Amino acid sequence: MKFNFYPxxxxxxxxxxxxxxxxxxxxxxxxxxxxxxxxxxxxxSGWEILNASDFSAVWxxxxxxxxxxxxxxxxxxxxxxxxxxxxxxxxxxxxxxxxDPGVSLxxxxxxxxxxxxxxxxxxxxxxxxxxxxxxxxxxxxxAGQRVWFEKDEPICFIFPMSLDLLESAEPSxxxxxxxxxxxxxxxxxxxxxxxxxxxxxxxDSEARxxxxxxxYHHGVKPxxxxxxxxxxxxxxxKPFDQG
Length: 243
Known about the structure:
It contains 6 helices and 14 strands. By secondary structure, the protein is of the alpha+beta class. It has a 5-stranded antiparallel β-sheet with strand order 2-3-14-9-11. It has a 4-stranded antiparallel β-sheet with strand order 6-7-12-10, with no helix packed on it. Strands 5-4-13 form a 3-stranded antiparallel β-sheet, with no helix packed on it. The longest helix is centred in the last third of the chain and has 20 residues, at about 180-200. The mean pLDDT is about 95.
């Protein structure tokens, strides 16, 4: 799939394949959150645009543009401005993305990454035809709360997506009994899950030694079979090369 970036002014922003790790996940007891494969895969399912400078900002609670005060934390000008008002902090993305026909770009904040007092906004850009640049915006959620953005922390998360694929979906709610294979595997998983949780209460049990069930992580159904489509435990996205 074609996925190009064309810088339009100044230095090209730093863009990298997203990391699967999160500090808060590492800080859970025994780094337990890192065992959740859906979390890790989501974290790494895109590319991150990195912040260019250390700065902090505070919103004083009114819709006015000058209600956001931005302060550089070093000699480098802050990477964000107040442009729209209403407590919205704006990062200009100095370049254009280009994707295949029909492939748009999801633009938002890094999954499972949190910043107290401010929230990344999300948009979808039709990068398969648009010659227009876009901005990455963050909305303050609390007045008077100063927030810090460190150099090289991700301020934007992107991944290509097909709106045609979404619109072609035919959602339906069905009875589980209509799918004998799925029903049987789910019943077996539910039974084994209940037994595993009970066994965790026993100090010397096999469940205590294992600590967690790994069938999903290993891509194995309760009946021992594996899915026909490829199972992933890690994303391996390519970096943007220099052409």
